[in-house]
Amino acid sequence: MKVVIAGAGSVGSSIARELLSNNHDILLIDQKPEVIGRSGLKGARWLIGDACEITTLRDAKLEEADVVVSATGDDKVNLVVSLLAKSEFGVGRTVGRVNNPKNDWMFDDSWGVDVAVNTPRLMTALVEEAVEIGDLVRLLTLQTGVASIVEFTVPGDSPLIGSTLGSVDWPQDATVVAILRDDAPITPSADDVIEASDELFFVTTIAAEQELRSVLLARPAGAAAGDGAVGRA
C-alpha cells in the first residue's frame, strides 16, 4: 500500500515507522530538510516542500496514493491537504489529525476527511477506559462522524456474564468486532460466552450508542430501582 504522510514530526514519524515495519511504501512530506536526518526512518521516501501547495502534491504523485495522512501540528494545514487530496487527486482514503478539539467539527467529508483522529480526545478516552469499568467509552469516530469504535469493560455484577454474544439483543447498528480477555484478543463469534472483565469492542453508529449503552447497562432482574450501573448521558 502506498501511503503519503504530510508532516514528519513525532506523530507523522511514528505512523511512518509502524507502516514501514509492515512493508508499506511510505512518502513523507515536510518543509524542513533537517527532519530527514533526525527521524531515524529507514526505507521511507522524502519530499521537502509545502504540502498545501498543488505543485508539491503533484511532485508526490498523490494520485497514486492509496491513503493520505495529514499529521502536521496545524489543523488548517491538515484540512487543506485532505481537501486537495480528495478534490484534486481523487485519493481513496484520507486520515486527518485534529490538534485542537474545538476544530473537530470541521474534519468531515466537506473538507475531504474520511477519518479524523482527535489525539487529545483519544487520550481522554483511553484514560476514561482505564477507570470507567461498566460504562461505554468512545475511542474513535469513523466515517465523518457517522460511526464510532466504542469499548465496554464488563463489570463483575453484569447480567450479561454467562450469556453468549449471539443470545444478546444488540442494536441493529452495533456489531461486536473484538474481545480482549486476559490481554489476549479474541475474534468474536455468536457462541463466545461473556465473562467478567472482558473488554468488548463495537463498531456502531453514533445514533445507536445510547441504545447499546442501555443493553450493556441493563440491571439484573430484581435489582432495586436505585441500584445498578449508571451510564453517562
TrEMBL record:
Keywords for the protein's UniProt record, in alphabetical order: Ion transport, NAD, Potassium, Potassium transport, Transport
Signal peptide: none
Highest taxon, organism lineage: Bacteria
Domain (RCK N-terminal) ranges: 1-117
Matching InterPro entries: K_uptake_TrkA, NAD(P)-bd_dom_sf, RCK_C, RCK_C_sf, RCK_N, Trk_Ktr_HKT_K-transport
Keyword Metal-binding recorded: no
Span of domain RCK C-terminal: 137-218
A Pfam family reported for this protein in Swiss-Prot or TrEMBL: TrkA_C
PANTHER family the record matches: POTASSIUM CHANNEL PROTEIN 2-RELATED-RELATED (PTHR43833), TRK SYSTEM POTASSIUM UPTAKE PROTEIN TRKA (PTHR43833:SF5)
Stated name of the protein: Trk system potassium uptake protein TrkA
Organism: Arthrobacter mangrovi
